[in-house]
Amino acid sequence: MKANGYVSVGAEGFDSFNYAGNTITFKVDRAMTLEYGNSKGYGLAIDLTGYSTNAQPPVAMFSLKGADMVSNKYVGVGGLDGISSGEVASPVAGSKRILWGYSSLAVFNPYKSAILREI
């Protein structure tokens, strides 16, 4: 226990406290502010309590079938090995590999969750 009833959860940047028998954890993460390119602050409150009637998790990650991880090659002059001839996508004498995919987060009890935005 830390001062004022806070609970130390061991990771740097997290603060937790107990309220009405629940542990509430806060972590500063500027990902949404950076993603949307404005100076507004965002907050996510997600209830991670699992259902007592089945084994369904409170949140889950989904992806498009066959598109969870896609690999592409951006071929430059010299090909992938640096000495091959053929078609190129860039005049630069170098190549790169690009990994990307589609995914989505589902919250199964959205009525107990919220997204806050600074006005």
Topology:
Blueprint: E1 6-7, E2 14-19, E3 22-27, H1 31-36, E4 42-45, E5 59-62, E6 70-74, E7 96-100, E8 104-107, E9 114-117
Antiparallel strand pairs: 1-2, 2-3, 4-9, 5-8, 6-7
Mean pLDDT: 78
Q: Termini distance?
A: 34 Å
Low-confidence stretches: none
What's the main sheet like? 3 strands, antiparallel
What share of residues are in beta strands? 25-35%
SSE string, helices as H and strands as E: EEEHEEEEEE
**What is the helix fraction of residues, given as a range?**
under 10%
From the spread of the alpha carbons, the general shape counts as: elongated
Number of strands: 9
The largest beta-sheet arranges its strands as 1-2-3
Rg over CA atoms, rounded to whole Å, is 23 Å
Number of helices: 1
Which structural class matches the secondary elements? mainly beta
